[in-house]
Specification:
about 20% strand, five-stranded parallel sheet, alpha/beta, about 40% helix
């Protein structure tokens, strides 16, 4: 049995009750923390809180060498842990399909995702989001500035009046997290006066929402990670009210985004 468990967004308490019970029932637990990361808890914190030994696997250990996980799941109940929701990454979908091909029973216990949390914190309606993008560190994609694929996706969403969730690069093995001010500065090179919405530390006791022109967001400090950036499309009047109330968006900027 292989049970995929989403740990939620922030610390050892962010897991659902169902997830906690599934983890307690497992004989062995693996985790990958390179696609996302719990900034409010270490692996030791997780192990202590849930009274389980957690074996961390890097990207290669999941994508290229999943044999140990699958072998264990053939004879034992294995839990596979990830931050956020466990099926957001295609890596995890691939692992589940490999397990099914080997006749291993699988189960999915979902967790809160960054995008649904961002929608809830900002008041931007989830059904009005288009294709999401990831903004990499320049050194990670071998060029300066914003990749053309990211620009094209944001522009396509804006032309359709849709919001874009911009996930910011994480290098967990280097303890390096792109911050929203850096991301805003990168995007302001082409969209200086465009409205952006920062969501910082979603799922934590002190989440932050800030809405302003990208050029203005580039000058601010949003504190500890994790950060996410949203580029809104056309705004419903309730969304405009939410960004003004919850994110302090200037009225003149909001007036340019009416649906």
């Amino acid at each position: 049995m292989l049970t995929f468990i989403g740990l939620g967004l922030y610390d050892e308490r962010s897991i659902t009750v169902e997830g906690r019970e599934a983890l307690a029932d497992a004989d062995r637990a693996f985790a990958e923390l390179y696609t996302s990361h719990l900034v409010g808890a270490t692996v030791d914190d997780l192990s202590e809180a849930h009274d389980v030994d957690i074996e961390v696997r890097d990207r290669a250990g999941v994508e290229q060498r999943p044999g140990e996980i699958l072998d264990a799941a053939e004879d034992e109940h294995v839990a596979f842990l990830t931050a956020g929701d466990t099926m957001i990454s295609t890596t995890h979908v691939d692992l589940r399909l490999r397990a099914i091909e080997r006749g291993i029973d699988t189960r999915v216990v979902h967790g809160v995702t960054a995008q649904t949390a961002a929608s809830g914190l900002t008041g931007l309606q989830n059904y009005r989001f288009g294709k999401a993008v990831t903004l990499p560190f320049p050194y990670a994609h071998g060029a300066d500035g914003v990749p053309q694929s990211v620009v094209d996706s944001i522009e396509a969403n804006r032309e359709r009046g849709l919001h874009t969730a911009v996930y910011l690069d994480i290098k967990a093995d280097r303890d390096e997290y792109m911050t929203a001010d850096v991301a805003s500065e990168m995007l302001a090179d082409g969209w200086a006066d465009v409205l952006g919405v920062v969501v910082a530390r979603a799922g934590s006791p002190d989440p932050l929402v800030a809405a302003d022109r990208l050029s203005a967001l580039a000058e601010r400090d949003f504190g500890d990670p994790l950060h996410l950036l949203v580029i809104p499309g056309d705004l419903h009047h309730v969304e405009r009210d939410a960004l003004a109330t919850l994110g302090g968006a200037p009225e003149d900027v909001l007036a340019e985004t009416e649906a």
